[in-house]
Design brief:
By secondary structure, this protein is mostly helical. The protein is built from nine helices and six strands. Strand 4 and strand 5 form a beta hairpin. It binds zinc ion (ZN) (4 copies). Pfam families: ANCHR-like_BBOX, zf-B_box. This is B box-type domain-containing protein.
Length: 313
């Protein structure tokens, strides 16, 4: 595959020969071709080196583990127990001259693979990963919860709106009904007067005609008596109509809108307010190990009886 980077054999490159490495020496930190690996395996200085497949090397190629001192650039080969520090050959005489327990890293790293620290590191990574996933899940479901709440608020707004609409419809219908009936009452009173006046008009028209005829054709005595009688009726009718008109009223229809409804259309500026209640998060991101015991990252330790006794006290 062209995407896979070829790793050259180190010893061959030294002779300006380009050959792909099939193995990798983790001590020499270079690739080895088949021939060079053979001589590397036989050579006294390198027969104990840890040689791995080039495929396995690719897996750890990007794991950044610094093996050199960040201050001096020399290989980290010493460990000071008092300071809990890894040291290079320059560090030792400069700052740890007085330290009595500076030992070679090779002496304490032999069991590093089986160390409690490494297994605890693995547990810590696993535990932290679970923590991260738990928190992620929690926040994701919190996001869904917000969406649910948004929907609930929205339907509450719409429901309220529908309620107001139907209430307004009802109130409007009631008011218009009242308007119709009030208008009807007023008109009825007017019409009643008009009808009375109409009958008065008819009566007067008749009396006018009778009076003309009386004037033309009746005897003097009849005219005398008729004039008095008709006059009496007219006077009576005038009195009656006068009191009727006097007792009647003028009406004017107006409306007074309920002040809350006025306010709704003029003063109410918000349908409501969206509120956010904040509360302390019910979720903790805890360190899987630090709560129980401090892990020792630097010093590989093996459990022994005295350690266990110490923990039990
Ligand atoms: Zn080679
Ligand atoms: Zn080697
Ligand atoms: Zn150093
Ligand atoms: Zn020291």
């Amino acid at each position: 595959m062209s995407s896979v980077k070829h790793i050259p054999c180190g010893p061959c490159s030294f002779d300006d020969v380009t050959k792909d490495a099939g193995k990798w020496c983790t001590n020499c930190e270079e690739g080895l071709c088949e021939d060079c690996e053979n001589s590397h395996r036989k050579s006294k200085s390198s027969r104990n080196h840890k040689v791995i497949l080039i495929e396995d090397f690719r897996k750890i190629e990007n794991v950044s583990i610094s093996q050199v001192c960040e201050h001096h650039g020399e290989n980290l080969e010493w460990f000071c127990k008092s300071h809990d520090e890894v040291l290079c050959v320059v560090c030792v005489p400069s700052k740890h001259k007085a330290c009595s327990d500076v030992i070679p890293i090779s002496a304490i790293s032999a069991n590093a693979r089986q160390s409690t620290a490494l297994s605890e590191l693995e547990e810590t990574i696993e535990g932290t990963l679970q923590n991260v996933r738990r928190c992620m899940k929690n926040r994701e479901s919190a996001t869904k919860e917000i969406e649910k709440q948004e929907q609930a608020v929205k339907s509450m707004v719409l429901e309220t709106r529908t309620k107001i609409n139907s209430q307004l419809d009802k109130l409007q219908e009631k008011l218009l009904h009242e308007l119709r009936s009030t208008s009807h009452t007023c008109k009825s009173k007017y019409i009643k007067i008009v009808q009375k006046l109409k009958s008065t008009e008819e009566m007067l028209t008749k009396l006018r005609e009778q009076t003309i005829h009386m004037k033309q054709f009746s005897s003097d005595i009849q005219v005398f008596l008729g004039t008095r009688q008709v006059n009496k009726r007219i006077v009576h009718e005038v009195e009656f109509t006068k009191s009727e008109i006097g007792a009647s009223k003028d009406y004017e229809l107006k409306v007074s809108i309920h002040n809350l409804i006025e306010k709704l259309s003029n003063e109410v500026e918000d349908f409501g307010k969206i509120m956010v209640w904040e509360s302390a998060i019910n979720l903790d991101f805890r360190h899987p190990k630090f709560d129980q015991a401090q892990i020792e990252i630097n010093v590989p330790t093996t459990r022994n009886i005295s350690n266990i006794k110490l923990q039990l006290i």
